[in-house]
Fold these 4 entries.
Entry 1:
Amino acid sequence: MVTGSATAMHLCMAHERQQCCYPDPKRLGHHASKALVEEAYLTPKPGLVDQRGPGSHHDLSLRLFVVSARVLRPYFQSMAEEAQRERVQVVLRTTLGAIGRNAESEMLKVTNATNTHRGAIWSLGLLTAAAATQQSPDPAHICRAAGELARLPDSFHCTEESMKLPPWRPHMAFGARTEAIDGFPHVISIGLPTLRRARAMGVPENLARVDALLAIMSTLPDTCILQRGGASALEEVQQEARRIGDLGGTSNAFGSRVFQSLERIMLQRWVSPGGSADLLAATLFLDQLSSVWTSSCD
């Protein structure tokens, strides 16, 4: 027979176990920053900064991306902490916006006013906050929760200030914002499945990640490409990225040759799939989260 006090103790222990299964904000911040570093180091990437050089950029380097990614870590951690502390979503959304703007200011300080991760702060910030409120690392649930946050207004967002920004920034913000509001479809339906399918087929991890990037590029209306090259450049890049996937990816000899052709096209047009790179980082972040919950629930 179970006494009342024993039952109460059992319920209390169950409650504590349930509470401990929320992820550690510090580890979430670590994994968000780590995903950005891994995306930066991934090589080869068409038109993007990687270990070979600056790609279609004259003001960026691998060192800048790594420094930027690492300086953002405490801001991602703060977003996760606030998400676990504040249950009123409208208030949380405003708080996240403030942290994100502070993160952007710090990023610009360490990069000498060069944009490295402005879109990633938005995307990974929302995903980190959403992950902090979940009791399992289910990517679909995390993306859905992030989308709900993205749809809420930020009461302190200054629209007049955004109107004064350089022409490329509103375009990129719109692209990243739309992706988030829709629940990150290019991550949950394209990036993650492509990455995991390639692994299951025995594709080396590096090439599996490149294939995930190309899959995202094949359908994403990447505003970084649009801003530099217009609709014709975007259409050509998407078409070539799809061809690589249809040929079996970069581990296939035919796909590898088309990849080299895609790189030449992007360098000639001086375009870079920055939006796709941010979503690849989001893909890598969600892919690696199981260890965070395992550690939290031990």
Entry 2:
Amino acid sequence: MKITKGPCGREGMRRMDRTMLTHLTHEEAVERAKKIAQNIKARFHETEKLNCQPAETIREFKEAGLVRAMMPKRWGGHQLGFDTLMRTGIEIAKADPSAGWVYVLLVVHNWMLAYYAEEAQREVWGQNPDACLASSFNQMPGSEVVPVEGGYRVNGVWGYSSGIDHSDYIMAQGNVGPFDEDGIASEYVFMVIPRSQFTILHDSWDTSAQRGTGSKNVRIDNVFVPKHMAIDMVPWCQRGEGPGRAVNPELLYSHPLYAAMPVCLTTAVLGAAIGFYETWRDGLKSKMSLRGARVAEFTHMQIRAAEVEGMLEAAEALLEKNVRRLSTGEPIDTHERLRIRRNFAIVAKLCSQASKMIFDASGAGAVYHANPLQRYWRDIQCGSMHLTFNLDWLGEMFGKMEFGLPLGKKDALLS
């Protein structure tokens, strides 16, 4: 397999016939994730230095078949559900928060592509069933998406694209003008653009946390995106509809976007918090104070362990409730979508609070770069600040629905 130069360079993909890959079961996928997690743990500090995921980590995701976990079987995927995304993602994020963040996004982006027109699916998976897709929901000021005959003309910068160094495509949200007096776009589209048509801005991800996600900006200059490589976000968000459902009619590919997609990032934050707790707990078992006492025998440490572990169990149960809801097949209306989204934010908040409690109880030695506790804390704090988990915004929308008040125009379209 040919690999391009540089620690964060894109790999030459293995051109594997999709009939050669046996379909994984949920249990097999989780076991493979646990095995890979051992290797990822060994690269914990390397990831931070690289400012992206090591090429070996991405290669292992592919070789284990995990990138295909939620991809339709008709393209060589395993067509597993959000329970598999959650359980495999927790295992990866326990080993390294940033690796978990990139992993869950790679998996969920293949689920998202299944909603696109069959021609788009064929263009991506027909050439390479192990293709990696990054995403950006952040169209920077001054960037534009203009409708033209047969598609859209795209110019500008799109931000926060996790895992972009290793990706063959970017999925970019585009707000299509003209805009009305309230700033509502004529269309909201999500476009798939190949690697040859954008430039990674490598200096744009200089952060104090989640460095290993490599969430860099990209520049797209005068690129034509054909209509079949874009999807209308409004019916996707409201009803889980997309042209790909004509060939992927299964329940897995029928969910409103924001009722389902946040399972991925919520999983990454939860898995990281569990990994943080377990690393702290195991370290305390042999830790001695400066006066020679066993720290694990301190009553306040025992109480902290009970409280933190209970908070994380509550967070996991709430995420599981959301995941189970997606498997019922019952329609999800706007009120319930917002309840589900609120739940994702509550999970992230619990994880952030639990992580602060752990760090506060870790002692001054936790601030050393060699100590993994400080990176768990930084990455979890950063992840919980993602817009997906903004409880003020989500709480306002949910509260309006609870009180029978109308949503704002844009929220009504895309929530």
Entry 3:
Amino acid sequence: MGRFRLAGALSLLLVLSFSELYSSEASSSEQDVPKLKHQMTVPVIKFLVCNSWGYRNAFQQYAKVINERYSEVQIDAGNYPPPQLNQMIASALSFIKFALIGCIVCGINPFEIVGVETPQLYHWARENTAYSCFMLFFLSNAVENQLVSTGAFEVTFDGQLIWSKLQSGRIPSIDELIKIIDDRVNVGGNTIDMNEFAQFH
């Protein structure tokens, strides 16, 4: 019976590990979004966005419209980096998460090793291995994602900022962004003053 329980626990740990690995790979693959056009002499519109599905989906929709309208424009994208401290805390939480899951599935009590009284919650976790591991995994992921979420949707045209959600408080409508890009492509000019975002509210 003990062997079956250990085998099941190890299988659970493998599933969670592969899930985390897949999530990390998907995140890193989306971080460096392939350039939709690649010419050195054309204008470059770059999106730096929050690494969440909603923001990535918005970028893809906007990029499609822009790409269809302006064949001469190159579109790049990337993740807007969160504060370094938040990244460090998220990484530490991820390590603790997997360490605790490993201890639970293998029947190891880390509190006894360090000479600390074992909390009742840990006793409960060891008695409910599968449920506690899944709960720990998904709760920790939620906190980690919150820590690295920036809420950014920053757009630059040839290196000049033309829209900032961090400063305006919202994502532009596609019509607003197209109008701004039209002015750049047809006329050019200086970076839009952040105060001008207020007129769109």
Entry 4:
Amino acid sequence: MAKWHHEQGLSRLEIREKIFEWGKENNLYIKYNINNDVISKIYKYDPPKLKSVEVKINQQDIENINRRFDNRKTKLVALAMLCYSKAHSGSDGYFNLSSMHLSFWLNMNKRGLRQRYIRELIEYEFLNEYPQNKPTSYKTWDVAFEEQSTRYKLTIPVVNAGEFVLGSNDIKKLYAEIFDSPL
């Protein structure tokens, strides 16, 4: 239930209220620590969803990736950033993405993802990174760390058109279809 409400875009507080409202309507006593045992875990372990936008990849997108990268994992990260940008960027092209969520979506190590693959995307002019001001002191709860995201903008044109479509948020299947190669 928490996951469904999370995918609908509700905040943590709204999810909490919906769960307790449901419990009250059904005369159920909820004994768990909903905040930490349920809701926080949804945010921590649930990979990002790509709204209800149909994300399409075109030949120019593929050429832009192939022109810059050879490594399969780097191409996967570039494709994921492109898809995420098409689904989540504003009219100005900027989007926020947590490296933790990206690492879960791609099933990659977070440190390697940031230090190797995202850095390569930046160095080869595929992506610009705009670090946000972080508070100087952090709370000790996991929540203080898990929602940190970075602001990005692709340097290539982002047009949601093309023959390849991301289905069921399965980025690896899309990669195999586009590059005719499994990971």
